[in-house]
Amino acid sequence: MKILAFAASLRTASLNRKLIQQAATILRAVPNVDVDQADFREFDMPMYDGDLEARDGIPAGGREFIRRIQGSDGLVISTPEYNGGIPGALKNAIDWASRTEPIPFEGKPILLLGASPGGLGAVRSLWHSRVPLETIGAHVYPEMMGVPRAHQAFDDSGRLQDPNQLSRFQGLLLSYIDFVRKLQGTS
To answer: What are the extents of the domains in the chain?
Structure first.
């Protein structure tokens, strides 16, 4: 099983990059799980513009994003919260990817995670991110996890410090893998 994992943040020191790194480390320890950990900058693309698409097609970053989604069995996305909602770069990537047939998200199991320095842990972004993904046919895992006060949540090595939070995170990732296997009919 191959899982595409990325933080939907362009910032180098993103808390969501730390969270997705922790997720990738946990997932790599699961038998028969291969993790394709991407840097969201690999999917650089302009704002979606129908005229641009008609003239030039899907940009290179969008084509790479589509290729990596198509090559995966599921996705784990850690997203920041921008002004109470989905980051523009993530929404833009979803919009570009939805312009190909078949839509690469269709039928893909997705786990949404988030981290923020605020007290809600990016949960508003998680709910907003579900909407376009479910609209284009993704199977968004019912449980999500936001890490509040994430600027204090990680130790110097980037590992979640709170043992209860880490245990919940590990359990969520393993449950998600079971979900992917059930959808594949391999459980």
So the answer is: 2-184
